[in-house]
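Notes continue from the previous slide.

Worked example: a multi-chain complex. Inputs as given:
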Amino acid sequence: MEMKTNGWQPKIVAFFCNWCTYTAADLAGVSRMKYAPNIRIIRLMCSGRLDPQFVMAAFARGADGVLIGGCHPGDCHYVEGNYKTLRRMTLLKRMLADLGIEEDRCRLEWISASEGDKVKWVVNDMTEKLRALGPLDLPGKHKEWDAEMEALEKEVQTQQEGEPSHVH
Amino acid sequence: MSTKPKIGFYWCASCGGCEESVVDLAEDVLMVTGAVDIIFWPCAMDFKKADIEAMPDKSIVATLLNGAIRSSEQEEMAHLLRRKSQVLIAYGSCAHTGGIPSLANQFTREQIMKFVYEDAPTMVNDQKTHPQPHSRDNGHELEIPVLRNVVRALDQVVDVDYYIPGCPPTPKLLKEAVLALLSGKLPPKGTVLAPDHAVCQECLRNDSKPQDISLTEFKRPHEIIADPEKCLLAQGLACMGPATRGGCDAVCIKGNMPCTGCFGPVSRVHDHGAKILSYLASTAAGKEEDEISATLAGIPDPVGTFYRYGLAKCLLRGKVS
Amino acid sequence: MKTKTNGEARIGFYVCHCGTNIAGVVNVAAVAEYAGKLPGVVVSRDYKYMCSDPGQELIQTDIKEHNLNRVVVASCSPLLHEHTFRTACEKGGLNPFCFQMVNIREHDSWVHDPGDPATEKAKALVRAAVKRVALHKPLEVKRTRIHPDVLVVGGGIAGIQAALTLANGSQNVYLVEREPTIGGHMAKFDKTFPTLDCAACILTPKMSAVAAHPNIKLWTYSEVVKVDGFVGNYKVQVRRNPRYVNEELCVGCAKCVDACVYKEEKFEDEFNEGLAKRKPVYLPFPQATPPVVVFDPDACIQLKTGKCKKSCLEACDRDAIIFDQKPETKEIEVGTIILATGFRTFDAGRLPQYGYGTLPNVYTSLQIERMVNASGPTDGHIMLKDGSKPKAVGIIHCIGSRDNRTNRWCSRVCCMYSMKLAHLIKQHTGAEVFNFYIDIRAPGKGYEEFYEKLQEEGVHFIRGRVAEVADWPLTKEEEGKLIIRVEDTLAGFVRRIPVDMVVLATGLEPQPDAQEVRRLFNISCSTEGWFLERHPKLAPVSTFTDGIFIAGCCQGPKDIPDTVAQAGAAAGEALSLINAGFIELEPNTSYVVADDCSGCKTCIPLCPYNAISRDEEKKKAVINEAICKGCGVCVAACPSGSIVQNLFTDDEIFSEIEAVLG
């Protein structure tokens, strides 16, 4: 299948915990590390705040990939929030696979406050992998799915009151 | 001609259980039939589509439509009834959230057709004949509705005013809805006509639930004989009660079966399945990936389990590739 | 104070140039123009330095003139200036939490090249903030009381200095030290660079002051085993390991040591770096504080077998020995904690090419410190194994420092202490001393001068990393010597330098249990394992956990002046909290909407702070917001969306997701 990839850039929505990964991204900045501009970071206090609904919403709204960053196991600022994230992500990844979302599109990474270089590496690596996968474009897909209803909808709109319809 | 308010019932992709639930009103069905004029109910009464088409727009006070929308015919009827009704109510899980039929959104239409008409064990079809939307027989043009690519909840096709959840809805909810309709005391448009709290609040086993659940194993209902007094989640059964809208009086749990989520989510939740996943995974034990995976292996089919009644309303709407 | 907040969003948007830091990469004018068209934005400006006074005044004036009820600033990281702008909003009469910050410096201009993608990213992040801020609600800052007592962990010079500073400032201090005595590494040193004043002369008075201070509770041979609570209100459990002596009664007369059934000193003396032996009962060193002996349970016959004639008991005229002493756990409440847990030195055996442990007369620098110390194992004489004085000594720098094979960092003190040892060796023995160095790092006050003085004294400096220390002679002069093979990078050839003694200038490493300790106190470590400061420049003794401060070498290698300065700073930070009496907490806590909660109890076991309980009457969950620390783990888990986290509501996050995607 041919994909429209002209000028397309993968879109990554990232959820970073305040204490480790967000701080690591700050460190990457302070260290002037250059990485792909495809990522949009949303700050959470803890990766444990990550509701799987957020991941679903990001994909549904057009993200090509979702990156979750938290403190390393045993390092959570809130003791064990990241283990709770791991439990949810373990099941979520399995469910996303069943829903046809490729593994590389949803990624959980433990990045400590001192690992600015890991932020750079992960973002670049994920961008490359998403580029290889091509666009997910769920808003476009949903629109495509619903195109089958257009003829009937148009028909309904143009129908006069009470006039019978003949569309199958 | 009767001056009683006109009410319509219609079914789309559904099992018929919702129709049954109307009859489950028992004596109250007389109250309902006494108070309203049922002008359309293909399951029980002989009315034709042309009769509806002939009616002026908005002349039906309310239509309760059950079933998901899978075919062009259902879509057309949804549009027609929308146009003729002042209030359109999505009745039951399928119309509300896609229901069991929307689990088909895990497969393409082609996969489904091939399975049903070729590969199903009960099928003998050497010619590999598939139904055709258009065909000729003895010089007659024959048309049958086309199957849509995806299954939709009612509000993904037409504008919906209210929702009565459940697979099927309980008679109590239907009665309350009809009374609200008759008295004109309807809540804001878009409301689900059921309480906005989770099943646990109505569950008689709530007090038996320990406060420190950490499950090392999930079991399926056929694998254990559940203690009829204790919280089913505490017994390892993936009960959706905490994440599912109440109003059912925890009827399944009274029957010693876990809640499977037919009332859909509460209003604050955007994606029922993701929320069930979040809550269930949060109760799982383990710190190592292997350990966690082993615990969660007791949920072999997350999509089928968490979106049993609502894959159409999953934010992804189904399998995406 | 009445603050404007609710009603239709009237948003003021500001994008900061940060000089050229942002404006050099992101088209700030385009971002401001774009933001001005977003729903709810009434004012949109770009400005050179938003964090400057005029920048902040701009916000305050606009709030009044344009009747703003929300503010968004796109500039640097919120971890840096969120507080600044919240305060500016508050001064303008707006609730400080009706503010959102967009990180377009650290997360954008500093990590991307100039051009459209960076500007587009800025716009996306701005869009999200504008959409989200409209949902912000006014919040109140909560205050928590600061318990005035302080816990200092580690009794080296850092811990001692911090404890004394606090105690002199009238605070009660618990000083917990793992070893039987305080003093740390400094107690082992003979002289200190560059002034060459005697370490004991400057340290011992401080140690005594600690022991005598009415405000200091000194617990040696003790370890922190549990830490609960949060800033201002920590509950700490300290385990006091049994030393089998009543500390109140023992005066350190050491009669028991003399009376011990072991007439010979047979057991390795940790304090003397293995150069001497001690008995099962011992005083680590003469000035040990507290001056209380300690029994080694792995060596004492009575403790091992219960079958000793216990001559020590008879010798003790104060009945201070308690053979059945048990570990004791003390629970204390403190408001702030200072960690000064120090370092360990690099294990020279890890680099076998230098012969440590295999060749005689190869010593670590710390062993030479003990040797040169008048109270040390050789009574201050620097001598070879055979008791003779060395005629030539080689000091090899950077052992376990600046080395990709071991540790990449510079240990900062080795050049200086190597030169100090060179001076002392030369002074004590008259030997020729060779320093083998990569670079001489002498950046402190009086340090470079000390380096010059050493050169004038005739100490040799050879630039080059030593390849190996060997004992196979090529010439007659080399016979019986240790031969140091090195490329002299200044002279440009490989040299073989025969010496009698080799000193390995071992570097500093994090304590072996640094990871466990930091977990205990819920702070972070750098990749190397040093405790991580909140900000390398602006918050060097703070950690990411409020109320916990770090001082000395646990944060990274440093010399005594820096350590003492840092300890003072940590004490100052603690005092500042104590003086304020309270701390303002981020209101990003969570609460249960009682009407929505079904009482399913999912959230209760998830809270790491036990802040969630069940109201048994109403059958609903309740969050104690004083205990909640705002992680939001319960919010994500709540199956019915009935828990709300302030500043991170579901709606706010969903709106961000939607907006960043356009």
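Summary box: Residues 255-315 of chain C form one domain. Chain C has five domains: 11-139, 141-183+196-241+327-340+522-585, 255-315, 344-509, 590-646.
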